[in-house]
Amino acid sequence: MYTSRSNLLRMEHLEDRSLPAGTVTTAFALGNLTITGDPQ
């Protein structure tokens, strides 16, 4: 017996996300994720 199930997508409004004043860089190499940011 074949049954069909549909997925319902919902969107939710989130709070405001202000951008940080600094710079963030990322790098992915050899399976490692490196995240570097400006010092405060």
Task: Describe the structure concisely.
By secondary structure, the protein is mainly β.
Commentary on this structure:
- The protein is mainly β and about 40 residues long.
- Helices cover about 0% and strands about 30% of the residues.
- The chain contains no helices and 2 strands.
- The mean pLDDT is about 80.
**Number of helices, counting only DSSP H or I runs of 4 residues or more:** 0
The multimeric state of the shown protein is: single chain
pLDDT averaged residue by residue: 81
Biggest beta sheet summary: 2 strands, antiparallel
Strand arrangement, largest sheet?
1-2
Q: Care to count the β-strands?
A: 2
Order of helices and strands: EE
Category from helices, strands and their pairing: mainly beta
The rounded distance between the terminal residues' Cα atoms is 61 Å
Supply Rg.
20 Å
Low-confidence region ranges = none
Outline: flat
Strand content bin: 25-35%
Helix content: under 10%
